[in-house]
Amino acid sequence: MKKKQTKSYKGYTYATWLIILVAWLIVTETNLVSSRLIPSPIQVVKTAGDIFINGYNGMSFWQHIGISLYRLIVSSFLAVLTAIPLGLMSGYFPRFRAVVDSLVQFYRPLPPLAYYTLLILWLGIDESPKIMLLYLAAFAPIYLSCVSAVRKIPIDYINNAESLGASKKDIFFTVILPGSLPDIFTGLRTAVGVAYTTLVSAEMVAATSGIGWMVIDASKYLKSDVMFVGIIFMGLTGILIDMGLRLVEKRVVFWKGRDES
Amino acid sequence: MTRRKKGRLILLLSIIILVFTGCSSKSKDEEGALPKEVKIGIIRVPNDKQVAISQKYFDEFFKDKGIKTKFMFFDSGVAANKALSSNSIDFAEMGYTNGVVALATDIPAELIWIHEVLGTNEALVTPKDSSITDIKQLKGKKIATPFSSTSHFSLLQALKLAGIEKEVTLLDMETNDIVAAWERGDLDAAYTWEPTLSTLKETGNVLIDSETLANKGFMTVNIDLVNAEFSKKYPELVQEYVKALNKGVEYYNENPDGAAKGAATELGIETNDALTQMQGTTWLMMNEQVSPDYLGTEATPGKFHQVFKDTAEFLAEQKSISNVPSDEDINHFINTTYIEKAMEK
């Protein structure tokens, strides 16, 4: 049922993109808008080709992508390692939640650039402040989804387990953890997305590499074609990363959705 | 539902297109009449413009005609260029390297004034406790500077002169972040300007400054750009504008302390600091602006045209800009008619 729905509306998605592309082409080819504001698609493709072949700022395009992905993966991995246990414990033990929750709620809405200079003061200018910034961005969504996942688990499950003689530890590992997995994955997907959006901020300071840095550098010289290439590529990799995570999700939480339907 | 959304999307798209095309045709009405407001971009540097503002010279030429003046701070020439590009300001102040970027990216603007020739107020500093005493020793080290600024350009020239331009790591940092990284000892050197420079000098030694580089043929300056649409419509106002700046220079020449005090109040800095910064630069009266050493006249372009051209070629070599503007473009971009006309009167 669900699958059928997504299939039948795919045409609309393609049509939307086609319209955008055609509008883009018309607007730029007729010189309605200066190429400084919006470069033509042809120009963007040419620039993309040039960057793929010759690199940017003496570094190949794939190295730029690679270093950005490295920052993203390391920070997301650290976030998973810390946010899942903290989140689950927060959800399970009210006392623990009282301690941790307010801290997370406090820093979560802070714009990264507001405290980035502090991170540089504390951590320096190498990889650590960049990874820290992405880590902070990724931590909150995973943590929050874990908390809500645990609290969503029907109390009956826990009571049943308890009446069958399960210890707190058993309940945690056999009821709470698997019961939370679907939500944890949703949180993880959001987290990687949020971290990805923070990438440009993270690479804004004292960087000489990375796809986000490339866009920042191009913006300093108003190279709108390079900015377009960077942004389009970031959008595409963002989608690819999410698709990858969804694949993993399907494998790990194979039962997801069966309960409700 | 989805169909309705689609309709909305198309509507949104057409609005976006309309807005973009609408931008360029905006403000073409009321030809001949004076504008209600002039928007002037400024940077946090105590120069002739700040003096003119503090002594209310702009009021004489604008406010008394019923034109409001709105001064807007820009952190860098990059931001000012973006504002010019979107037609949000009429005048912008920036390092001339961003003027090169403006011309190379076809931003409709004209260069009308040199605010100051940069000297000891921009310099390459290295921490006192490091063993580096010569630029050549920076090989393999980390040097920070705000990219696309005059400092960035001066740094690249200094490294090139030392023959190590490919053997250092350049870090693009804003001035406040440079101070942060410097305090931690993460940087081997930094090329920056005042007031950051003074902070770094407290624990650092100057390796080379922009004055030395200027003597070696790499002059760097801060300039003023006018939105070409504005100057076409109100050439007289542009003349008045350069007159106000000229009065600022004049006041500084006669009374440096008074000028420093005024500019310091405007910027919220110490008068002494302002004076030090001012003394590190060279200011030009109208007749000096149009002398062969600087802008020259429309009939006989000055030395600055070559500086501009060399910089454009250098930036193109660095792949920072994609094309080098022709001599004709540069002559067209640097417009001294406003100064020349203002001098006639």
TrEMBL record, chain A:
A Pfam family assignment: BPD_transp_1
Residue ranges annotated for the ABC transmembrane type-1 domain, each copy included: 65-249
SUPFAM superfamilies, per database record: MetI-like
Nucleotide-binding as UniProt keyword: no
Subcellular location: Cell membrane
Keywords assigned by UniProt, alphabetized: Cell membrane, Membrane, Transmembrane, Transmembrane helix, Transport
PROSITE patterns: ABC_TM1
Residues that span the membrane, as ranges: 12-27, 69-94, 106-125, 131-150, 194-216, 228-248
Family designation: Belongs to the binding-protein-dependent transport system permease family.
PANTHER family to which the protein is assigned, alphabetical: ALKANE SULFONATE ABC TRANSPORTER-RELATED, MEMBRANE SUBUNIT, TAURINE TRANSPORT SYSTEM PERMEASE PROTEIN TAUC
Name of the protein described by the UniProt record: Aliphatic sulfonates transport permease protein SsuC
Organism the protein comes from: Vagococcus luciliae
From TrEMBL, chain B:
Alphabetized Gene3D superfamilies for the sequence: Periplasmic binding protein-like II (3.40.190.10)
Alphabetized Pfam families for the sequence: NMT1
Solute-binding protein family 3/N-terminal domain mapped to chain residues: 37-255
InterPro entries from the UniProt entry: Peri-bd_TauA, Solute-binding_3/MltF_N, SsuA/THI5
Subcellular location: Periplasm
Superkingdom of this protein's organism: Bacteria
CDD domains: PBP2_taurine
SUPFAM superfamilies with a match to the protein in the record: Periplasmic binding protein-like II
Transmembrane segment boundaries: none
Major localisation: periplasm
Annotated keywords: Signal
Family, similarity comment: Belongs to the bacterial solute-binding protein SsuA/TauA family.
Name of this chain's protein: Taurine-binding periplasmic protein
Protein source organism: Vagococcus luciliae
